[in-house]
Amino acid sequence: MGGSGLPSVGSKPNALCPSGISLIGKFAGTGARRRNQVNFNYYRDKSMKYVETTLAVINCIGAPVCKYLGYHRNHDDYVRKFKSIRDELKCKTEDMELQLKAELLHPLGKIPKKGVHNWLEKAKAMIVEAQGVENKVCNGRYLCRARNGKLVEEKTGEMQTFLDKSPNASESLVIDGPNVGFPLPTSELVGEKAVRDEIWKCLMQEEVSKIGVWGMGGVGKTTIMKHIHNDLLKQSRFDKVIWVTISKDFNVVKLQDAIASALNLKGYLAEKSDEVIRAVILSAMLKRAGKHVLILDDVWDEFSLEEVEIPEPSSSNGCKMVLTTRSKQVCNRMGCKDMLVRPLSKDDALILFLSRVGPNTVQNKTIMPTLELVVNECDGLPLTIFVVAGTLKGQNDPIIWKNALKELKRQTWMVKEVEDKVIERLRFSFDHLKDDEVKQCFLYCALYPEDFEIFKDELTECWIDEGFIDEMDSRQDMKDKGHVILKRLEDNCLLEDATSDWPRVKMHDALRDMALAITSMNPRYMTQAGMQLKKLPKEEEWRADIEKVSLMRNSISEIPQDMFAPDCQLLTTLLLQHNRIEKIPDSFFANMPRLRVLNLSCTSIQSLPDSISELKELTTLLLHDCGRLRHVPRLSKLQGLKKLDLRWTIIEKVPQGMEILVDLRYLDLCCTYLKYIPAGVLSKLSRLQHLKINLSNTKARVEEVLTLQNLECFEWYFQDSRELNKFVSAMKQSKKSLVRYALQVGQRHMGGRINDKIVKIWGYRFCEGELIMLPLDIQDLFINACRDLRSLSDHIPCLENAIDLRFCTILNCQDIKCVVSWPFSSSSTHPFQSLERLDLYNLPDLREVIKVERFGSATSSILLPPASFSLLKVIDIRDCWSMKTLLPHWLLSNLQNLEEISVDRCDDLIQVLGAPTSEGEEIVSDASIKFSLPKLRELRLYSLPELVSICSTSGVMVCDSLRLIHVHGCSKLKRIPPFVPLVGNGQPYAYAPPSLQISSITQWMESLEWDDPNFKNLLQPHFIDHYFRNR
User: How does the average pLDDT of the chain come out, rounded?
Assistant: First the structure.
């Protein structure tokens, strides 16, 4: 039975099936379990994927949601912290300003560090921005709590980071300014050596403290003193040389302001109105100026030094005072040793005349006899010689010379007074101008105050407004014509160049006297400019035949309501700018029917009288900088108006009837509160040449601007890059070229004059991949306070094609790591070929100027296009804390025109000029490396705590033009690299330029380590301790 395969007795077969089936079921069950396990694993994995995806989604959404809820929940805490940090920033700024003021006064001659000035400017802007944020948060709805909380938290972080990098109050906030003073422009000195030497001798003597240089107008007093002033600057005898021009309209306040201005401290007096306090402050200023020479030019009357609070010069304080005057009595009453400047001798007068009249005339022997007689008529007065010689320059016809001689004699034979004879001789040159328009342009200059320096661009604009320059195809052509006239007046010595920072001219006071004498008759002007008037001239002075009135730059505060209406039927020009006028009676303009030019700029006027609307011949209405002006009457009747300037007024809407002014050529609507420009207004002003609208809250369509075919000068604000790109693209398609423009994108910022083709990117946040288009003829790029900008190459690649770009300024951009990347992405063969100046300020993450994208090749083999950066003259770097090397060695060959390097507060900077490097290597041995910058004149290094070397360990600088090395706050810098010519290998150094200065503190200079004692001996005479030199 056992072999039957049946279950035996006692076995426990499956109750449901026979044992065979049970066995098969066993195997079948195992497969099912396996299938179930597989299915389980499959569904488990799939479920896990769903779970992971769900968790990922939750993470993606959850983190921002949590953050959002955190901003909402902690809103009030964020606001409290924000206010706390803002108040801390305010206090820090105020403390620093007070410390800066104190340091500027102890001693004088200091100027704020560039980094300090930049930090204060940024701090003020940040405080204003913080106030805007607070206003937004306070007025925000409850639903905006999270968004406002985020905004507040971000701004708090920005302010905290900014505060952490504030200038160290324990260090000085100032550096040395110009050593003694600035040289003055002057003409050559002929035949006046004797009196010049006598004045110089007295200045060098202790017993003479006050000197009076006197003589008739035009004899050369000012020229002599300008030469002495410039010579004093080269000496070390005096700590300061102060030049002040006084003029006829003398008063104590004006003189105090002029002296303070010469000391770069005018702001301290401007805040004080009390005469006693002003006097005390001025006295302290002059005493702290140390041993000084005060030169007062063009003094007409005696005055009390005590009243002005000028310390009495004496041998004990070592101070000197020199004044120039036409009166010997003034010298005597001021207690001065008087020195007479006499006219030139005949020989010296002839030499001076021949030097001015030109070589062709000198070589013409037939003219010489008459020429000598003409020189005699000049009576040895340098001014008259300059003017007459300038008039006859290039004339080779003997008849012209004989006629000139007759005119000179005829104009002076009946005049007895010497001063009047001078005026008549000067008038000879005026009469020979021939062109009436040039004569009118010259006489117009007399409308300005005496000795006033007039901006050239402003003057040519005025001539255009007056109609002296005929209509031409473009406004720029008219400006060019104006500059040609200016050049002619300068060449004839009727105007003199007064250029300092901006191109300016001025009239010699004798020439102004001549112009005023002419305009007292025909044409008749009434000129009382800059005479400190507090009231309008009396009724009898407003004569019926007056054509132009200038009352500019006075202190006139009101025009009484009951005042007479001046009866000036011929009046065409009324200049009232720079007064305190608040209101004008409606009847004031009633009897001025021919008025064409009205200038009320820089007054306190709040509303223009409606009677202005009746001035139907008005062509120019100037109201810029009227910071209280709210109302301008209807202008529809002024259909001849060509120029309307409302810049920096507070009008809220465009004057009614402006769309009718179809002859308008110049329109400035940069107004702080202007809200709306009606559609279609701009497009109707089809003759516009100059247009400025630069505000974010102005709803004006740039499409209308594109229809203005005559536009030459343009200023506009764009809210984002899309608008700017659209405009630039349209300009390219139309092939229209602007003479000047200022285009701005980002936050609102009120600009100044348009003098270049400039684009400003201000407070803009760049999106990833966002590109900005620029006009290809851009000359100036200004970038400030932009976020998420890491390189210009990333967002403004077209910049590499801007072959006319001359200036580039980047500041307050927290994220930028390099200025541009190389290789350049553009098709231009020579990117940045015209760049002259590069300014980089407060860029905390900036690592390098040019980032090299390495592709396995050594950086030492980098070769930029030869013209790239080849015209760069100035590099100014401040507050770039992450930069370690300023200029890599491979860049130097492109910088052969570099003249100035200034580095300030770059905390991590190790070296100025980097040595060659290779991929993955340290700086290689550079014992024979030459760093060639042949035109470098100035090297300024301030507050660089980690700076170890200027050009690596033992490199040699080839800098034959170097004239100044200024080092301050660079304690680890122990070596000045050789930079002067060598006689030969191993031979002593040949020479150092006489004008070379190495300025620092004595402790640093004593700590220097020298490779060659001969080099030390050569440079030691050129060391200057900048702590003591201005004390």
Answer: 82
